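User:
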Amino acid sequence: MTGTDTAEMALDRSDPESAIAAAAHRCSNWARWGADDVHGTLNFLDDAKRARAGALIRHGRSFSLSQSFDTNGPQHGWRRRSNPVHTMLDTGTDAEAGIQGFPHGLGGADDVVSMPLQCSTQWDGLGHIFDHGRAWNGRRAGEVVTSQGDQVTGIETVADRIVGRGVLLDVGRVYGTGTELPDGFAITTAHLEETIRTQGGASSAVGRGDIVTVRTGQLTRARRDGWNDYAGGAAPGLSFTTADWLHRTEIAAIATDTWGFEVRPNEFDNAFQPLHQVAIPHIGLFLGEMWDLDALAEHCARTGTYEFFLVAAPIPVTGAVGAPVNPIAVV
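Assistant: Predicted structure:
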């Protein structure tokens, strides 16, 4: 029996505090890469691994794994998050009217977008979540993120790092009805490992430096039935007990097609996002949320190959604790 199996059997819904503390102790990467580290698990993704990942491009076909950034998105005001507001500053009608002030008939269009940085497809940075006032690598939260933003682990510090081997674990296809898991489905280590076995072959293996994507099918359902409570409501997602797997596999990052990455409602009474509380400040793991994995999943199922070259650089907003991303998978 593995330590992870023991953790799953011992989960006590009434005591999230103890479970979080124990998992944080078991899975801590504090000081693993030195006291000044700002990259966390992205240290597992080095130049050699990026070079090998380039060989995964066989056909040159690319897939955007991003949802749209527009007013038709999933946000409904939780934590003051809104969908993007796109405003035109200059338009073709302005150009036709000759009111733009340019010489010799030149005209143009210009625009601006206002949005929370985590309103659609995005990365959680290492300054996004704290545990008892401590940020990644044991730093005081107040010394990391101030009113000026994340002064230490801002998302710009990883702008050139999230490029490498991507792996899709289509848990929704393996365990779901059709290809969709029901809301509240807790994806355990056993589910992840069985999905790897079912998909078969070395292309599904997960290891050091990989960027893992987990498809639940919730976004598929939201597209069909409407957003409803996609942003913040019940959802399939990773079980708290996968913390040990996330630590043991030494993956660089992980992303899902859901709003909150972990299963909701959470597996403890009176808890909120406990896996985040371990994964980000203690493991140093980058979490992606609201990724669109459907088209890629169809391709992977058809070809039987679940690995790909992935470029998933966040927009380097200085001091941001999370940022939008348009991940591109190339097969």
